[in-house]
Write the structure tokens for this entry.
Amino acid sequence: MILCFDIGGTAIKTAEAFAQDDIRPGGRVPTPGHDLAAFIAVLRAAIENASTPPEGLAFSIAGVIDPETGLATVANIPCLTGLHLQSTLETALGLPVILGNDADCFALAEATLGAGAGHAVVFGIIIGTGVGGGVVVRGELINASGGFAGEWGHGPVAQRIIGETVLPAIPCGCGQVGCLDAICSARGMERLHAILNPCATASSEEIVALWQDGQASASRTIEIWLELMAGPLAMVQNMLGAGIMAVGGGLSNARPLIAALDHAVRARILQHYDRPLIVPAQCAIEPGLVGAAVLGLNQRRKRAA
């Protein structure tokens, strides 16, 4: 059995993975984000309370592990940032550990048990609080050792001039200017709407609902949002040749928006599809836990080979 953890800034969720088709979600506890000793204690308690002694531990974490240094950067769990996290956890817990970025684990979950099942190349897209993603090729993460592959939301690629509309260069939390994350995430959509309609304030959910109702200012916002997103996603698709792009995150719940994005991207790519390419995520179990389970089970299989 592989004991799996989905580590978020608010909660730590657990699951026991016996096989890819036998993943049993457990409980959740608050994340001790500022106290490493308390964080380790939560993990130890989960190990002690497991139904059977685990062979290894697999983690989905909302952060990144630098593949060259092994150092973690976990913005919403400060006690983990700057650590050689894998060796720290293995020493503290006495079990083999494998770590995955949360977006990568989402992509693995969709490639294994979700919308991407049966496709050789799957791009998992996150459109919510941030814009990110992960790439799975033949059941394995393209960056299995960690790193930054799939982070299409960062980099100075956002268009500034769309028709007669001129957009400002918006600073991003990553330190760059002009990232899609800053203008096309859920908060970014709200920022875009305020730029286009200076007297208007609305949440991303309200903007999408107004767009569906045909409201003019919201329709203009979504038109610009689709233009900003479609070109970069088309370039990603031309590079990857993904069989499916599965979308998670808060905005994935707006099915007409995802359908409109799919239509806009398919009109811009080299390969012609007579079916949707960009679809809402379908994995029924917590994708972070499923992705961590797949990571851990794959590692166990390789050790046994």
Q: What stands out?
A: Residues 2-101+285-304 form a domain with the Nucleotidyltransferase; domain 5 fold (CATH 3.30.420.40).
